[in-house]
Amino acid sequence: MADLSQFIDIHSHILPGLDDGPKNLAESTAMARCYAGAGIRTIIATPHYINGTAWAAQAHKVRETVNELNRHLAREQIDLQIHTGMEIAYHPKVTEYISKNLLLSLAGTTYYLIEPSFQGSQEHLLHSARTLLQAGKKIIIAHAERIDAFQRDPRPLLQLVERGLEIQVNMDSFLDKFDERCQQTAWQLLRAGGVHYLASDAHATKHRCPPTPADWDALENLLGVETLTNLCINNPRRLLAAS
Ligand SMILES: [Fe+2]
User: How far away, in angstroms, is 46 Cα from ligand 1 center?
Assistant: First the structure.
């Protein structure tokens, strides 16, 4: 039987009403039951932050929503601890906003999860990431394998990995639930030492849902125990312990 109890999901859209995740508390609770049912006990909530859109909850709102959901889950006796975070869509002011502490890091650490735009040049994003790394921030690129430019040529991304950039890949990409290019790029990044975290990017209880024990078994077969442990347990644990 797969043991997911030590898995820490660093990318999850579990908060109600802030983005394209659950619409309300009932849907969030249903997602939490999926996590707890699989034995998962710790996750980081990462609602989309897309500057200038309706999906741009302020830091205090995200904190408040996480606190409310944690209290609700405790009342419902659902054993799941949720940390604060954001999936920050890249925009030109990201560097300034992060430097001014206007955006939430992952679990109050110095790690920020940044989502590139799916199409187009990533030159500005990589430049901003370099600037933030130099300023002592830790930057994780969300689901890099889904980004067209990195599918075409991951080398600029991998060059920044050598300077401390970290990469999160979606579990579904290895499980063949996106398209073939995502899967190929996920493997290419992994073989090049450019994957640091595997996470669910869960949005709901059915399609794009928290991982199941069957998913975990499949990932273990594909990646091996050591890699899976590093990407899903050891590296997220190190992240949570970082200040
Ligand atoms: Fe996401």
Answer: 7
Q: What is the identity of the amino acid at 228?
A: L
Global pTM value: 0.97
Residue 166 CA to residue 229 CA, distance in Å, equals 17
Q: Tell me how far the alpha carbon of residue 31 lies from the centroid of ligand 1, in angstroms.
A: 15
**Over the chain, what is the mean pLDDT?**
96
CA angle centred on 140, ends 154 and 59, rounded to 5°: 140
User: Would you call 182 helix, strand, or coil by DSSP?
Assistant: helix
Cα 47 vs. chain centroid, distance in angstroms? 10
- pLDDT score of 111: 98
Give the distance (Å) from ligand 1 centre to CA of residue 87.
Answer: 6
Q: Residues 6 or more apart from 88 whose CB is under 8 A from it?
A: 49, 94, 98, 103, 112, 113, 114, 115
Sorted by where each begins, the domain ranges of the chain are 8-241
Q: Which residues does 224 contact at the CB level (< 8 Å), separation at least 6?
A: none
Q: 210 alpha carbon to ligand 1 midpoint, in Å?
A: 12
**Cα 200 to ligand 1 centroid, rounded to whole Å:** 8
Burial profile 104-123: b = 16 or more Cβ within 10 angstroms, e = fewer: bbbbebbbbbbbbeeeeebe
114 CA from centroid of ligand 1 (Å): 10
Which CATH code is given to the segment(s) 8-241? 3.20.20.140
What is the pLDDT, as a whole number, of residue 179? 86
